[in-house]
Amino acid sequence: MADELVHSHDPNHPANLICELCKIFYNNGWVTGTGGGISVKDGDKIYLAPSGVQKERMVPENMFVMDHPSKEYLRRPEVYKPSACTPLFMAAYDIRGAGACIHTHSQNAVMVSLLYDKEFTIANIEQIKALPRVTEPGYLGFFDTLTIPIIENTAHEEDLKDSLEQAILAYPGTTAVLVRRHGIYVWGESVWKAKVYNEAIDYLLELAVKMRQFGIAPDGAIGSEREQRRL
Ligand SMILES: [Zn+2]
């Protein structure tokens, strides 16, 4: 069962990293009840957490390993099913050349998807500076607006593939896509970038929900907030 692909004492081996990150994400409430998923690319190998396994109990032996770009499984544990997120992660790898992709069922993502229509926007918040410009080198500035597209959910996760791909192509500057009443997909050049982007975006989503509770527009101009407050 090609166990040498997942057995390593190196804490930075993708199979070990996925387990470590799943515990962190579980403790943040992002992947409870086996929801969500994560995948890491290492050269021509893509590591994928399986479907239906409790994220906080994930072990390296659970991992699927796929060759890229052939998409043939190099390791496929028979007791598990591949994650339903797999075709969606492939969209980030194929279209954007991502190094890792994270999917969470964060309540902040779900709330924002209920408060916004086609896209989420937020501006003039320091945390935006953690996010990349994507279409050019460097990161967004304090005065920039972060925009994340929102796609509609489907009955089966894998059926999101077409609309996710369309959103990735329609928003060349985004590093994430929100799924209404479901969660969010975030990717990055490396596993650590994807982790930081996911954390920064979730912070901004949570902040936007709170701002709207106080009648403050998250994408409003500086100085306009005070007028919009209903205190
Ligand atoms: Zn999901």
TrEMBL record:
Amino-acid positions noted as binding substrate in the UniProt annotation, renumbered to this chain: C85
Cofactor: Zn(2+)
Main location: cytoplasm
Reactions catalysed: 5-(methylsulfanyl)-D-ribulose 1-phosphate = 5-methylsulfanyl-2,3-dioxopentyl phosphate + H2O
Domain Class II aldolase/adducin N-terminal: 16-209
Keyword Transmembrane among record annotations: no
Leading EC class: lyase
Keywords: Amino-acid biosynthesis, Cytoplasm, Lyase, Metal-binding, Methionine biosynthesis, Zinc
Subcellular localization: Cytoplasm
Keyword Amino-acid biosynthesis: yes
Residue positions binding Zn(2+): H103, H105, H182
Pathway of action: Amino-acid biosynthesis; L-methionine biosynthesis via salvage pathway; L-methionine from S-methyl-5-thio-alpha-D-ribose 1-phosphate: step 2/6
EC number: 4.2.1.109
Stretches that traverse the bilayer: none
One family name in Pfam for this protein: Aldolase_II
Residues at the catalytic site: E126
InterPro entries given in the database record: Aldolase_II/adducin_N, Aldolase_II/adducin_N_sf, MethylthioRu-1-P_deHdtase_MtnB, Salvage_MtnB_euk
Cofactor info, note text: Binds 1 zinc ion per subunit.
Function: Catalyzes the dehydration of methylthioribulose-1-phosphate (MTRu-1-P) into 2,3-diketo-5-methylthiopentyl-1-phosphate (DK-MTP-1-P).
Family matches, as HAMAP family: Salvage_MtnB_euk (MF_03116)
Stated family: Belongs to the aldolase class II family. MtnB subfamily.
Protein's recorded name: Methylthioribulose-1-phosphate dehydratase
Gene that specifies this protein: MDE1
